[in-house]
Design goal:
four-stranded antiparallel β-sheet; alpha+beta; 2 domains; binds glyoxylic acid; 12 helices; Alpha-Beta Plaits; binds manganese (II) ion; Aminopeptidase
């Protein structure tokens, strides 16, 4: 069996999906359950049906498009990714795994391949934390890593609960029906852009992921004392922003000095209250993202964060609160799927590197319930989460080809 990817169609579909966006091209903003997200979902469902797939949606909007295998008693082989996009990001993060997954299935159909196990394409709800603060919402619920009760109380920045938002979006079912039974999938493979520079730099077309780094995110609130920017003299201040600045720099220093290049810490959110140029900040909220491939080393950065909060409390007279949003373990990919993906590369003469994923993905959670691995393709200069994110049509087609072969090997 030799597979052929329809590169022109896949490229075109990625462009169509990118146009479902709240901001002008090339930037993409597609927040979960926004109008654009719902319109994109409807268009994707039409593509799944056109490919003859059976479509099902769960109560949180995870979408499953199934190509029935000849033996329905066997666990299915899953593939897929997400289509939500963080504000002002690019058009390839996640989407390549959904539309590439669909094209992989269509390529297998065109070749006359008959799967013994069903092959199921998944579009996960809200891999990005933009709206509800926590990443991989859909896959956490699927895998039982987040309880339905904890999910139900999540709120967006407008104060709307997940319950209200998903009901309004047309997903009224019970959240406790989302978790999958063990054995539902026999394997899961996700195609994704690398979001790092290694493949491009080494001129290697495919990365086969062997492990996914452990993410943690937390909100730190600093309560100080507000006041008049002219009248309150410096010795008498309890400026929440200056305390938050010290905490931020301490976290950066902690991540820089673990001795490992794998430690990263980012403060991507900073809300200053009341937010007036002539008013001393009385309250600051910081959003932190801390990751490492080694969970213990990551946790030592979190311990440094805690120490730094206590330190500014003593020295500056402020009060701090730390709220942990998630603190996940890393994932190890399944050696059998890693080998199958490697064999698929060999078959088409594509070189590949085994590598670690520093970004998190729904695969991090799928790995908790079934053997999982990922296939990476290069993206220009490793850029991601930016409008200039780019992968060539050839790179996407090569990744899709490797995915299709891997799915065939796992489903045969
Ligand atoms: C996913 O988007 C991540 O932040 O790793
Ligand atoms: Mn992303
Ligand atoms: Mn992604």
């Amino acid at each position: 069996m030799t597979l052929k990817i329809d590169t022109a169609r896949l490229t075109d579909e990625l462009q169509v999906l990118a146009a479902f966006s709240d901001v002008p091209s090339p930037a993409v903003t597609r927040v979960v359950f926004s109008d654009q997200d719902l319109r994109a979902r409807a268009w994707l469902r039409s593509l799944y049906s056109e490919a003859g797939l059976d479509v099902r949606e769960d109560a949180v909007g995870n979408t499953f498009a199934r190509w029935q295998g000849s033996d329905p008693s066997l666990g299915a082989v899953g593939t897929g990714s997400h289509t939500d996009a963080i504000p002002h990001s690019g058009m390839y993060d996640g989407t390549v795994g959904v539309l590439g997954g669909l094209e992989a299935i269509r390529a297998l159909q065109r070749s006359g391949f008959q799967p013994r196990r069903s092959i199921e394409l998944l579009m996960f709800t809200s891999e990005e934390p933009t709206r509800f603060g926590i990443g991989c919402l859909g896959s956490r619920l699927l895998c039982g890593s987040l309880s339905p009760e904890s999910a139900a109380i999540l709120k967006d920045s407008e104060g709307m609960s997940l319950e209200e938002v998903r009901a309004a979006a047309g997903f009224p079912g019970q959240l406790d029906s989302v978790a999958l039974k063990l054995g539902y999938y026999s394997a899961f493979v996700e195609l994704h852009i690398e979001q790092g520079p290694l493949l491009e730099r080494r001129e290697v077309p495919i990365g086969v992921v062997t492990a996914i780094a452990a993410p943690a995110s937390m909100m730190v609130t600093v309560h100080g004392e507000g006041g008049h920017a002219g009248a309150v003299l410096m010795p008498y201040r309890k400026d929440a922003l200056m305390a938050a600045a010290e905490i931020s720099l301490a976290v950066e220093a902690a991540a820089r000095t673990t001795g490992a290049i794998d430690s990263v810490a980012t403060i991507g959110l900073c809300d200053v209250f009341p937010g007036a140029i002539n008013s001393i900040p009385s309250r600051v909220r910081l959003g932190l993202d801390i990751r490492d491939i080694d969970a213990d080393r990551r946790d030592r950065i979190i311990a440094d964060l805690e120490r730094s909060c206590r330190d500014v409390e003593t020295r500056r007279g402020v009060r701090t609160e730390i709220q942990t949003i998630n603190r996940d373990l890393p994932a190890t990919c399944d050696p059998t799927i890693v080998s199958a993906a490697g064999a698929a590369c060999d078959k088409y003469g594509l070189s590949y590197d085994r590598m670690v994923s520093r970004a998190y993905h729904d695969s991090l959670f799928m790995s908790r319930i079934c053997p999982t691995a990922m296939v990476f393709i290069p993206c220009r200069a490793g850029v991601s989460h930016r409008p200039d994110e780019y992968s060539t049509p050839e790179a996407i087609a090569q990744g899709t080809l490797v995915l299709a072969e891997t799915l065939a090997a796992l489903a045969a």
